[in-house]
Amino acid sequence: MVKICCIGAGYVGGPTMAVIALKCPEIEVVVVDIATPRINAWNSDHLPIYEPGLDDVVKQCRGKNLFFSTDVEKHVAEADIVFVSVNTPTKTQGLGAGKAADLTYWESAARMIADVSKSDKIVVEKSTVPVKTAEAIERILTHNRKGINFTILSNPEFLAEGTAIQDLFNPDRVLIGGRETPEGQKAIHTLRDVYAHWVPIDRILCTNLWSAELSKLAANAFLAQRISSVNAMSALCEATGADVYQVSHSIGTDSRIGPKFLNASVGFGGSCFQKDILNLVYICECNGLPEVANYWKQVIKVNDYQKARFVNRVVSSMFNTVSGKKIAILGFAFKKDTGDTRETPAIDVCKGLIGDKAKSSIYDPQVSEEQILKDLSMKKFD
Ligand SMILES: NC(=O)C1=CN([C@@H]2O[C@H](COP(=O)(O)OP(=O)(O)OC[C@H]3O[C@@H](n4cnc5c(N)ncnc54)[C@H](O)[C@@H]3O)[C@@H](O)[C@H]2O)C=CC1
Ligand SMILES: O=C(O)[C@H]1O[C@H](OP(=O)(O)OP(=O)(O)OC[C@H]2O[C@@H](n3ccc(=O)[nH]c3=O)[C@H](O)[C@@H]2O)[C@H](O)[C@@H](O)[C@@H]1O
Questions:
Q1: What's a single GO BP term from this record (predicted)?
Q2: How much is the ipTM here?
Q3: From CA 313, how far away is CA 359, in angstroms rounded?
Q4: Ligand 2, closest atom to CA 216?
């Protein structure tokens, strides 16, 4: 029996592994995490994340071939394939602070894998990481390998929160990058066979390691860039009397542009778009490409502009002050069908309104009052 262990029971690790377990009944999947409350929640009736359809999938396979555990070392040691799906937030201190990805969690997971392994393993980068991370991880893994062979693959995840289960059941593509060596190609085939249980083979794209790593950052940058483009247009629409919905629809019917991701908004949020673009900007700067870095930086600048513009419009439309005025804010998470508030534009909007002394009443069916208060009390980079 093939054994899979996934390090990191978060928004990606949990749903992804639950779907692998469901679709591959002959594979044992164990999701491990250092956060005991999170693992306890995965083992309870109240899963730690809200995602439509997730409860059903977990209920079908938990205790059969899907397990959640805090015994990280034991399950990593026993696994044939180790997915690493730990968080890779923006660095808040030191070199590259405010831009570069913080790989502390990744590095400590890699060191632990190297320490506890007693058999050959395929180590899969599931987290979004800077291009060339696999090279550094390989160095860590092979440093004290005691004759053990580690083969590293990049298999970035493209699910969106709120539709994770649907995206995992029916992905546009699965991307697997590996070394162009016999061992690398063999590992790619092993992982491809896992996904081939339910994903048509022509949707499983196999590339070299660096293309897979960079494609993930590029995909998020392109998606976010569309939103900033339409949001920039929305400012011009407001100035000229054009209607941004009509403009979006009109351009989206051009099959070369396509209709998706053209909804003007208060700005994109979520744990990844901003983080991944900042990371891309940093990589460009490190590679001596300031023009390319500046191009992508603009996507974030327009997003910040859109959030500020929204608050200013609300305030100016109410006689230039919202002081003492009661404002209802419906929805606090960064999008519908999730309870995730990481980088939600609602934080900037609420802070802007509260800063002007509005009396805000905030409600979101998936976000607790405690979480809202915590988010509103934090400074950026807390
Ligand atoms: N959230 C999303 O929709 C998507 C996220 N990603 C990427 O996937 C990665 C994970 O993201 P999320 O699941 O959202 O993060 P998360 O923060 O929800 O989960 C990460 C988990 O890893 C655990 N962890 C950290 N270090 C550990 C260690 N050494 N050993 C065991 N557990 C450890 C943490 O306790 C946490 O529960 C990130 O790189 C992110 O950019 C990619 C696609 C979609
Ligand atoms: O790497 C990641 O974390 C993921 O990031 C995004 O997924 P996610 O952030 O979960 O959600 P999206 O549906 O992409 O929405 C992101 C933000 O953009 C906003 N948005 C989206 C679409 C649009 O047309 N306009 C717009 O403002 C949403 O409201 C939301 O705040 C990508 O869509 C996923 O493919 C990727 O795997």
A1: glycosaminoglycan biosynthetic process
A2: 0.98
A3: 17
A4: 1
